Amino acid sequence: MKVLILGGTRFVGHLLAWRLVAGGHRVTMFHRGTRVVPFADRVETLLGDRTTGVLPSLIKGREFDATVDFGAYVPGDVEPLVDTVARAALGHYVLISTGQVYLLREGCPRPAREVDYDGPVMARPEDEEGAGQWDYGFGKRMCEDLVSHEKSHATRVRLPMINGPRDPHRRLEGYLWRLLDGAEVLLPDGGERPMRHVFSEDVARALAEMLCNERTYGQAYNLAQDETPTLREVLERMAWRVGAPAKLVPVSTAEIEAEGLSMRAVSPFSQRWMSFMDPTKAKSELGFVHTPLWEYIDRTVTAFLGHPPSDRPEGYTERRRESELARRVMRNG
Ligand SMILES: NC(=O)c1ccc[n+]([C@@H]2O[C@H](COP(=O)([O-])OP(=O)(O)OC[C@H]3O[C@@H](n4cnc5c(N)ncnc54)[C@H](OP(=O)(O)O)[C@@H]3O)[C@@H](O)[C@H]2O)c1
Q: What angle do CA 32, 34, 40 make, to 5 degrees?
């Protein structure tokens, strides 16, 4: 196949590009060139900034069998691609979306199925964090709506939080640094809320397998793991895996906020805006299978221990205040 990847150099896009190259496909990648691509000599690179509107002219006259779009966030990113010329050029268009599209839906069930997408959307929250998260989900919804018509050759793929090596948000990695530094680790609200995420490699494989599959045209799919661990379970597993004592200290969200700490930085898996999706449709229609949770956690830990990054994730800067809060909470019983 001739595949165009819009993005492809950071996380899942990077894994997908590797996978397609390894599979003997002809890969073209469009991005700004901010990262080194280890397989650059085996792909065609189109350099450009999508926000400048340069993309349609770069692909004019070209014909790809499939295009995977990792960089569509607002309708303006997709609009230039839906005109007839661009559609012919793109082939099967796969839009990378998010489980966030369900969080905006009034009364959306958890877990959310693909059919739960339709319906009224809640008002934009007033608080800064809620507004930002709502904007992200709403932007993705508008991108989806542009390509979801009946005769569409597009597939919408909704993803929850993605874990794995190279995660640019450095979520699991942030917990690992904390477990390894020997100080207490905050467990917001006891860390008992079930979560359903997905492993990056499983997404890349599922994407590669769905390209040019006509059955997926016009469809949306949730790609998510079956397991629904709590944060406490994940941290205990990772602590065991690295040989550290799990000094987990339950604290309330209110205590974290009163300390002026951001939940996103302290414990990204405890954020209020976290989707919880039902992957049944992808499993039954696409044969989606995923790596067992503990296996992928172990692999991510191994990759971290083998090549620990030279710096700490952004949220780690307030680490001392986190452990002070933990000790205070423990002292106060
Ligand atoms: N990570 C998660 O937990 C999660 C969850 C749900 C959905 N998603 C979705 O996953 C997608 C991102 O996945 P990824 O990071 O794995 O993708 P990726 O394709 O590996 O990386 C993003 C790519 O976009 C390029 N890019 C960024 N800004 C650009 C611009 N203005 N013009 C051209 N190219 C640009 C980057 O390269 P340059 O910097 O060189 O331009 C990079 O190649 C997003 O659509 C996000 O909504 C992620």
A: 85
Composition of the chain by helix, strand, coil, percent to 5: 45, 15, 40
pLDDT exceeds cutoff 90 at 82: no
CB 97 within 8 A of CB 156: yes
Q: Does the beta carbon of 103 lie inside 6 Å of ligand 1?
A: no
Q: Which ligand 1 atom minimizes the distance to the CA of 162?
A: 3
Tell me the β-bridge partners of 157. 96, 221
Q: Is the CB of 157 under 6 A from ligand 1?
A: no
Is 197 touching ligand 1 by the criterion CB < 6 Å? Answer: no
pLDDT above 90: percentage of residues in the chain: 95
Report the alpha-carbon distance of residue 296 to residue 307 in Å, rounded. Answer: 16
Residue nearest to atom 24 of ligand 1 (CA): 7
CATH topology assigned to domain 91-331:
Rossmann fold (3.40.50)
Alpha helices (runs of H) in the chain, residue ranges in sequence order: 12-22, 55-59, 75-78, 84-90, 100-103, 128-146, 171-180, 200-210, 231-242, 253-258, 263-266, 280-286, 293-306, 319-331
Q: Which two tokens stand for residue 186?
A: 């905050």
Find out whether the beta carbon of 162 lies less than 6 Å from any atom of ligand 1: yes
How many CB atoms neighbour CB 45 within 10 A?
15
pLDDT of residue 75: 96
Q: Considering the chain, what is the average pLDDT of its residues?
A: 96
CA atoms lying within 13 Å on the CB side of residue 126: 0
Cβ neighbours around 56 below 10 Å, total: 13
% of the chain exceeding 70 in pLDDT: 100
User: Does 69 score more than 90 pLDDT?
Assistant: yes
Give the start-to-end residue ranges of the domains of the chain: 91-331
